[in-house]
Structures
1.
Amino acid sequence: MSGLLIKGALIYGEGEPVDVFVTDGEIRQIGTDLGIVDAEIIEANGQILLPGFVDLHTHLREPGREDTETIETGSAAAALGGYTAVFAMANTNPVADSVVVTDHVWRRGQEVGLVDVFPVGAVTVGLEGKQLAEMGTMAAGAGAVRMFSDDGHCVYDPLIMRRALEYANSLGVLIAQHAEEPRLTKGAVAHEGPNAARLGLAGWPRAAEESIVARDALLARDANARVHICHASTAGTVELVKWAKSQGISITAEVTPHHLLLDDSRLETYDAVNKVNPPLREASDAQALRRALAEGVIDCVATDHAPHAEQDKCCEFSAARPGMLGLETALSIVVETMVRPGLLDWRGVAKVMSENPARIVGLDDHGRPLEVGEPANLTLVDPDATWTVRATELASISNNTPFEAMTFPAKVTATVLRGRVTAREGRAVGTRAEV
Ligand code: NCD
Ligand code: ZN
């Protein structure tokens, strides 16, 4: 068989169903009665065709914690979630602060072949915030690192951050900041507010995030550099990003599905599956984040997929590691929080999950328009499906989803990477690795 024929898809959920013929990694024909006889066929039956999703914030845990996720299992989770590109954060062990690690991540991702795994390089050596890592070498390596972040840690020293922005500017790469003033979050495990106070949990104030967002916007302005804000979690961050954009500062921001859907009322049970960094905030913050995503103040959705072992989650709240699974539930939560309430249409979903993240990191073969001649990185979504999350059925090795037993709308039914089907009907399918 040569090529792939997706029959009867609604492109961006618009117009009448059409057939899409893909071969040699590209979209070759779009129309009806294409006369293709020799191709693998996907019957879309009116499902929605979108560009493959791009995740700017994924933790794959390889190297170092392969007991919780590997590049292979994380790639499977990504493909099942509709992703064709993910950015693997640098807080591995060893840290991705050298070209040895970033090249390994890139090569292993290509070997698995389910999704393009782009390595994120550390901003500072060992994520320690003291000395800049060799960003130039990583950018020039096989992994061609285009995004740098100490995520998990904040680049808290303003002088180091300023130098990082200047250096990134000269290299044409992006700095993504985990905005958390560490002096305000010592020992903090939950959003600082009435709920944490009542439950006796040490509070992580909004100002810890917002003060860094404000500072970094100003540093980016002066360095004439771009800065990206990881996992925006507060209404105040939304206001600051809006202000910075109004000043012409090159700032972009992401929001996670869990910050769009959940709030700190979930802490009641002391179940550490709800512990995440930044913490789940209040319902009013979630509302502000949804509005900001709809209005384009927040540019994109990023999962912050953060797998953790059972022993690191099923323990006392304060001792548990922060982080939640996200890759396989992201689209459904975006549909639940944004599409269902009328805040985004499907073209909007394509923007925030594919086009905008690809643009932020300057990818030219992901997040492209669904047109003839474009790379065939595609996601097919059944908007009428409903499904119930079962951690044990997810492809991730870890089980730390806060959405266990919740029922959501919409399901990714197929994902296509450069013309090759990588996920179909709930199974990851690779020519190079069967997962
Ligand atoms: C992330 C992790 O586990 O690596 N945890 C989290 O709570 N988000 C780190 C991070 O994204 O800050
Ligand atoms: Zn982070």
Note: The longest helix spans residues 206-223.
2.
Amino acid sequence: MSRIVKVAAAQLGPIQRADSRASVIGRLLALMREAKSMGADVVVYPELALSAFFTKWYIPDDAALEAEFFEREMPGPDTRVLFEEAARLGIGFHLGYAEVTVEAGVKRRFNTAILVDATGQIVGKYRKIHLPGHPDYRPEYPIQDLEKMYFEIGDLGFPVFDVFGGVMGMCICNDRRWPETYRVLGLQGVEMIFCGYNTPIHNPMAASEDHLQNFQNLLPMQAGAYQNASWVVGVAKCGVEDGWEMIGQSSIISPSGEIVAMCSTLEDEIAFARCDLDRTAVYKHAVFDFAAHRRPEHYGLITSRKGAISPFPRTDRPTERTVPAHHDEE
Ligand code: ING
């Protein structure tokens, strides 16, 4: 039996800070129409797909930051056309965006992704849990990574959703580097994981490893797919945004760990594959039959030996602005 999902990984080239929101929406619509013309059931957009990767800038004025980069509603005035076109074409989509909302009278900000079905209804939502970078402005860095300042840690866990004929999950960017991401989804029987990313080549906190960014992009996604018997669709926003280059390599990865489609440019480009969800079965029922072979009760107490978590002396300076309590450093 085959449960085929035709997937269009819709990589985005750079979005400059000066680019209009209308120009971005136009690009997303063009990719959606191209995906439909290829026969896709779902088009997968990157993380923070509506704007430049703004966490590289220190923007202390919250009102200005939210006005320029955050969505107060989804669909909202700019994005409603995506939902309407998806319903008209009969195609689902995954979209990453910066979410600001008020819950129980408290303003919340998240790095968020949604799954929308072919009728234009939101059927899944995820809020990024692994926020990389640093919580405080570091003027000595040529490029900031201020996700810990701009977003709260996601509060939805790693849920799975029954849509597109299978069990679907999501993660966002840095999440893809952590084995827990895939295992928590794998333990729920996930068959396809959508992951958008914006990954600058230069990481001031580990500049010695910049040359390995492409290798260390694919490595965890291929391993995570194989070790949890799931498809993984990783989609980049890439190219040079306001002077800083981000990696591409948007890929569709099989439960075997093989890359079955990959973008080869740093521009708007679709990587397309017919993904058989039943390809997961041989791995879920043989090598990675968790019930038959996995033995968490024998692994011993899962704790970290003192100092094992951060073996190096922390060099964090006191933060220059109060970071919300839940950002407490360990
Ligand atoms: N970006 C990066 C990522 O995890 C990063 C942060 C860059 C981490 C380079 C390590 C090296 O791909 C996001 N948005 O998480």
Note: Residues 317-330 have pLDDT under 50 and may be disordered.
